[in-house]
Amino acid sequence: VDKTQHTIKQMMISDNKMFLVALSFAYFAKALSGSYMKSTITQLERRFDIPSYLIGVIDGSFEIGNLLVIAFVSYFGAKLHRPKIIAVGCVLMSIGTFIIALPHFIIGRYEFETSARRIVNSTLNVSPCAVGSSADLTQGGKLPEVPATGCEGESNLSMWIYVLLGNVLRGIGETPVQPLGISYIDDFTTEENAALYVGCVQTISVVGPVFGYLLGSLCAKIYVDIGFVKMETITITPADARWVGAWWLGYLIAGVITLLSAIPFWFLPRSLPMSGPRGPEKCTPEQKSFMKHKYPADEHASFTEMAKGEDFFPTLRTLLGHPVYLTYLCVTIIQLNSLIGMVTYKPKYIEQHFRQSASKANFLMGVINIPAVALGMFSGGLLMKRLKLNIMGAARFAFGTSLIGYVLSLFFFAMSCENAKVAGVTLSYNRISYDKHPVFTACNSDCFCSASDWDPVCGENGITYVSPCLAGCTDSAGSGKNTVFSNCSCVGVAGNFTASTGQCPHKDDCDRMFPYFLALSVITSFIISLGGTPGYMLLIRCIKPQLKSLALGFHTLATRTLAGIPAPIYFGAIIDSTCLKWGQKRCGGIGACRIYNTTSYRIAYLGLTLSLRTISFIICIPGFILLSRQLKKEEENAINKALANGGTELEALRKEEFIISNSDQMSDNSTDRETRL
């Protein structure tokens, strides 16, 4: 019998460890694919020629998929085979990730916008400046737009819809991983091991984004059609606004990793025998009462019956009527709007403002920012334990760290780069900067140019021109990235100046400022993250224990609905408003933005982020007052209860003494009677 019990115990420990490894791998896979999605924002914009607000819709679609099924999964999943439900979720996540990559294999090769593509089957260096007459131009001075061939039979369905649907499916698949995985660990391990196992899983989930951004950095260096085109014919570099990396490759890798994470869950049991302090025979009456509340017997009630339950809506009303909880909910929703919008577009901000490549921006996010956030969250929990903070102390700590991070973030406004010098966009051809700049001027009036093309060249004078044609270049030599345009009438007065492909660097001021930006970014990320754990503990402790589960669930629902979905959309729309030059779709219509107003971008991006946080700080003021009143009231109730209990105990002691004295008196009387007899 002892040998059998020992064997069962060993099997149980083995299954626990196997589940821990499987769940950690699943957390890693979902975190990797989620962060990789954010790292490919600019790649998707350029590949599908869509503005930033549509990218926000795609990014928020993950939360939509999650919200569609979270109620059903949380309720019914706990009554079914939890490991297999998680396995199904991982498979769905994998399928969704593969669907995101599907458009690459449907829409054909990437044809980036360039004025040189009109030269077909020619070995001669044809003049970029095709001589035309003013009669050939439209009234606005533009070349009449001619749709590209093959557009007649092109599907009206935009390919980015597949990315959106795939992300929705990813959200659906991710739903069971956290609630069912954590509850499985909590149900079938000892309390000490449960805390350790959950900590391991959370740590692995922080490692996932690091690898996700590093994968994004690697794929952004590789050209989108690698293996299908000759790289010698590609005239752009990864720093170009038209460059699209192999975004699809990372999704295939993430999809395979997610699919592999599903395999172990198919071989795990539905439940494990409980051991240790969780066993009823080893529990005190108080522990048994707690376990009865935490692990209720299976109730065969339907979801409809649960929703119609007499206790649900009154409990929800009580929760939403709790002033401290409601204030905390409002503050966190606003703070998360700021955080999600900032994190979603931070790589894009680094690219556009500091003129870094997408690969470098993603690399820095993965290597510097994410580890700083992870270290901050861990240090915050450690400090809370060392300082033994109560609920008010945790609130003050979280508010203080957030306020310090806010003050430091104000210095980002001073870390500015000048607008790129682009003739006809940010400054005029005579180098005078003003609001409206015509791309057509006297130096290119004899050329038959299109104002909508974006094929920038860098003149010897350090000015970028929208295209070789608009630079007035009449000759060209070389091929690919080594093409040199000559006799550019707009570059110099003599007309003998040359221009090379791509934008002029103009990175001197940015290169000096960029290291300071990175250092401040790491410091603010770390300080703000310090308050993450104390802030979460405030949510748990500010309400009654019986409302805790509902409070956490409603908090997750509210933040995902009111922050996770809308924040990327309106942040993207505001960023779009700072665009100076939009790209042109192959079949007509506005595409992705090619160049932004750096100053407007900085003010819009940072201003919106800090404005939301300012609002949250204002709401915190009544929040502290309400929390102080609640704690004072709880303290008074505790004192009154202690006094009442003390009075009751004193009365009981008096009765006990009276009974004992009567007993002694009766005993003495009996002894006297016996003596007399």
UniProtKB/TrEMBL annotation:
Disulfide bond is among the record's keywords: yes
Pfam families, sorted: Kazal_2, OATP
Keywords carried by this UniProt record: Cell membrane, Disulfide bond, Glycoprotein, Ion transport, Lipid transport, Membrane, Transmembrane, Transmembrane helix, Transport
Classification via PROSITE patterns: KAZAL_2, MFS
Membrane association type: Multi-pass membrane protein
Gene Ontology molecular function: any one: sodium-independent organic anion transmembrane transporter activity
InterPro entries in UniProt: Kazal_dom, Kazal_dom_sf, MFS_dom, MFS_trans_sf, OATP
Coiled coil regions, renumbered to chain: none
Residue ranges of the TM segments: 50-73, 85-107, 248-268, 325-343, 363-383, 395-415, 513-539, 551-575, 603-627
Chain ranges of the Kazal-like domain: 437-492
Gene Ontology annotations for the cellular component aspect, listed alphabetically: basolateral plasma membrane
Catalytic activity: L-thyroxine sulfate(out) = L-thyroxine sulfate(in); L-thyroxine(out) = L-thyroxine(in); 3,3',5'-triiodo-L-thyronine(out) = 3,3',5'-triiodo-L-thyronine(in)
Main location: membrane
One of the GO biological process terms: lipid transport
Keyword check for Membrane: yes
Residues covered by the Major facilitator superfamily (MFS) profile domain: 19-632
Family: Belongs to the organo anion transporter (TC 2.A.60) family.
Name the record gives this protein: Solute carrier organic anion transporter family member
Organism: Scophthalmus maximus (Turbot)
